[in-house]
Amino acid sequence: MSIYKFRVEKQDGTDQAMSDFQGQVLLIVNTATGCGLAPQYKELQDLYDTYKDQGFVVLDFPCNQFLEQAPGSAEEINQACSLNYGTNFPRFAKIAVNGPDASPLYRYLKKEKRTLLGGRIEWNFTKFLVDRQGRVVKRYLPTTSPLRLKADIEHYLAKE
């Protein structure tokens, strides 16, 4: 089983097949522009810029479930990310990551990589690393700096 069986909603309301990212190493992150961890957007962009030509993509899923720190429309979120952090990696429609309305993709991610606290997403900027075969290989805490993931990203980029 892999993430390629899922479809997600793009910010413009159209569907995106996760299989469109087949063969790439993915970092999937639930984000919030109003979160104290939002400066991680800059680090995520740095990773994307460094590795995108090698088959690496950051996938940004805004989530308003944690103290409503991702308010606003898709356009407002895009504007905040572009102006404040210079991001240009793929961003999707706002989603739920926990509870009965959690996106099927996030239900799968949480099932594949549980923590000591179970599968629940603890906060904004929880990160999942997915290998080129669509397997969820690592889960990182919200407070883990994206720049600390370089060795893992390079490891999975080197594997075909």
From TrEMBL:
The keyword Acetylation does not apply. The active site is at C35. InterPro entries: Glutathione_peroxidase, GPX_AS, GPX_CS, Thioredoxin-like_sf. It comes from the Bacteria. SUPFAM superfamilies: Thioredoxin-like (SSF52833). GO terms for molecular function: glutathione peroxidase activity. It catalyses: 2 glutathione + H2O2 = glutathione disulfide + 2 H2O. Keywords: Oxidoreductase, Peroxidase. GO terms for biological process: cellular response to oxidative stress. Belongs to the glutathione peroxidase family. This is Glutathione peroxidase.
